Amino acid sequence: MNIQDTIKAKYGDVATTAARGAKASCCCGDDTSCNPVTSDLYSNGEVSALPLEAVLASQGCGNPTALAELKPGEIVLDLGSGGGIDVLLSARRVGPAGKAYGLDMTDEMLALARENQRRAGVENVEFLRGEIENIPLPDGSVDVVISNCVINLSADKRRVLAETFRVLKPGGRFAVSDIVRRRALPESVLRDAEMWAGCVSGALEENEYRGLLAEAGFREVGVEPTRIYHTDDELDGALMSAFVRATK
What we know:
Elements: H1 3-19, H2 31-38, H3 44-47, H4 52-56, H5 64-67, E1 75-79, H6 85-94, E2 99-104, H7 107-120, E3 125-129, E4 142-148, H8 157-167, E5 168-181, H9 187-190, H10 193-197, E6 204-205, H11 206-216, E7 219-228, E8 239-247
Parallel strand pairs: 1-2, 1-4, 2-3, 4-5, 5-6
Antiparallel strand pairs: 5-8, 7-8
Helix pairs in contact: 1-7
């Protein structure tokens, strides 16, 4: 099974588990060591107005909807939108004059997200099927691109960032929560498809992330650490959640 198939299988299971009203294992796959990745990212006020299934399906490592400083009337795109939690929150922030798109490649997640949209009664939302390396939107069509612990999953991040730059309007904002590597990882980890699907092996090093954004054409690049993860193994301190921002 290749990396993309592993990712689809993992997050398909997350979606079907959430649809049953249960919480799947967290992003890194081990509830004991990885609870800090997905826990306490949203305020009670944010999640109380959402369907439980949207919250249960969340596998993020941050809250980009809060950090992106979304404004009424803006058009937002969430890369790897999962069960739709960040899309629904974004839709409320941009209001009826704005719109929030969610893009995901996993059929089970799209079905769950659309059901969550129906339950939430949010109209200014559209969920799209596709890959973040080939965004199905026109050039210069969105004001803000957000994402939550997803870009690290891509095997072609250069393409993802180029596509993101393409769909943003001039002056548009890149506002992403992601796992970022703080030091080199063991070769055995880098070759492990399960560890890649678990948001570990594919994480970019901070300066590499900055460089790829600049190469894509972005300016005002910033990487702000939000959590550093400590474990009792060789990965201790090697990874962090970060808010990555840039401007077109």
